[in-house]
Predict the 3D structure of the following.
Amino acid sequence: MTDCPLLISTFQEVLRVRVTNASVRLVMKDTTLDNRYLLKEGTLIHMLSQVIHSDESVWGHKAREFQAQRFIDQKLHAGAFRGFGGGTNLCPGRHFATISIVSFVAMFVLRYDLRPVAGKWIEPTQNITNHVAAVLFPDQDTAVHVSTRKEYANRTWSFTSVESGSRSNVSVVE
C-alpha cells in the first residue's frame, strides 16, 4: 500500500473529515488543565474526533477543508489522527478495513468512470447532530453516472487474499 501514497492519503483524509467517534476516558484523580479547567475524579471525558481533527494548531488554517494530499509526507503528533480511535481503544480491525476499502476503491477507480449527473461535483452537506454514529451520513444522495471504461469492458476481475507475512493480508486484483 505504500506504492499508492495519494490513495492512502485520500482514505485517511476521508476518515479525518467524515468519520466521527468519541474516545471516552475516566478521570482517575482531580486534574486541572491549562490552569482553568478542573476535571474531577470519577468523571467521564468524551473527546470527539471531529474536534481533534479540525484543530488548526495541528492541521493548519485549512483544517476544515478536504485536502487529498494532506497525509503525504506530513509528520503528525501521535494523537492527532484518530480515524480508528487511539490508545488502548485503537480498532483491532483497522488494517483489514483499510486494505478492504482501499482495494475496492482502487479497483473501482481503475475500472469505471464516474461523472456527476448534475454536471459538477458538489460536496453534500451532512447532519452533524448524531455524534454516536461512526460515519456521518450525507443529507441527500449524490446522483452519478457510472460507466465501464472501454479498455476493461470484457475483463473479469476478482479479489483474492494472500498471506503477506504482516499482521494483515494483502488483497490482490487480478
Q: What stands out?
A: Residues 79 and 86 are 7 Å apart (CA to CA). Residues 94-111 form the longest helix (18 residues). Strands lie at 22-26, 31-33, 37-39, 44-48, 112-116, 144-148, 159-162, 170-173.
